[in-house]
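Appendix B, record 7
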Amino acid sequence: MGSVQQYDLFFVNNSMGGGKACVYQDAGNIICGDGSPSALAWMICGANPGVQIDFKWHVEYDCAWFNATAPATQQIKTADVNAGTSVVLALDQYGYSFVSGTVPPVPGKLSLLGDYTIPSVNNVLLGIGMSGAGTFAFPAQPNVSHGFSPVADTSLSYWLAFGGDFQRNRPVGQVVPSIKPICVRFPAGVFAMTVTLDASNILRLVPGSPPNAALASAPSSVKIVYRAGQDG
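Structure tokens (predicted):
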């Protein structure tokens, strides 16, 4: 189903300004033979100067749709990459929902289909997520299917951006961050990484968690734990 290993990405704001820290996934994390999906803002949390955030997640995949039409709605369904998962998005009088599909699942692949009930003009994104929040999606269309094949856990890469009006589960390409994003990869056997925004507004990456001395001296009010999938 997924990895039981927890990953921690710490963000420390040592700059002079506050803003939103946004974590999203690298395009190379999935193989999709029918186009290039949008990367979604996966985890977002505000950070004033002096604040430290601990972004936490597990490598557990989901199928997901997000409807931006007010009132916004969504559905996130746990997926099984090993056995494969196949779902269909449909629309009825009560709204959108996943229904059982007739196409058998393919091991290693997450398959999603918009059926004939989906209007050709809509505000719905259809795709996949990880640990309870969206990561990649296409605009939902009638009678159009998409297949996502995640790469090995050891090949996953992430990005951290700071500044900009990011919205969770919405495409990051629609936002221009004020700070150049930084790519984060977890070396073999390392499950915690730290990104620090310094006084020169440069993001810097080091393996491991922040120094214990810094944790011990910081007031508890400036340490935030943010788990993928939570509201924020």
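Remarks on this record: Residues 212-217 form the longest helix (6 residues). The CA atoms of residues 13 and 49 lie 5 Å apart.
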